[in-house]
Amino acid sequence: MLELSDGARITAAIVLLAVVGIESGGFFLLKVLAGRAPATDFQKAFFRAGHAHAGVLVTLGLVCLVLAEATVLTGFWHWLGATGVLVAAILLPGGFFFSAMGAGRTRPNGFRVLFPAGAAFLGAGVVTLAVGMFLS
């Protein structure tokens, strides 16, 4: 059985609790899609995308956290391989939600800068982890 470090175990526990936040976002999304919360078509699309990215990236991030424990990566590289996807799980959905905020919004606002930052962490995290898996 794979032993998790204390850091990985605590990080996983925090992320699992954060799933409740994703769940509450799902309830809000249902209100929007049912017409009980006003939103433009643009906002509906971005809220849907943000919710989907949050769920998928948190799931992938937990897998990466566990896989990183089986590598020879250390220091910064271990941190990036273990948590890069989890950082992206904050930045990318945040980009969708925050850039769509505001009554009647039909285009993304300045929070769209979170998209390239999230994409960078996603790519760097999975590539670093893959290299670490090859080296182990």
UniProtKB/TrEMBL annotation:
The chain crosses the membrane at residues 12-33, 54-73, 79-101, 113-135. Keywords: Membrane, Transmembrane, Transmembrane helix. This is DUF423 domain-containing protein. It comes from Myceligenerans xiligouense.
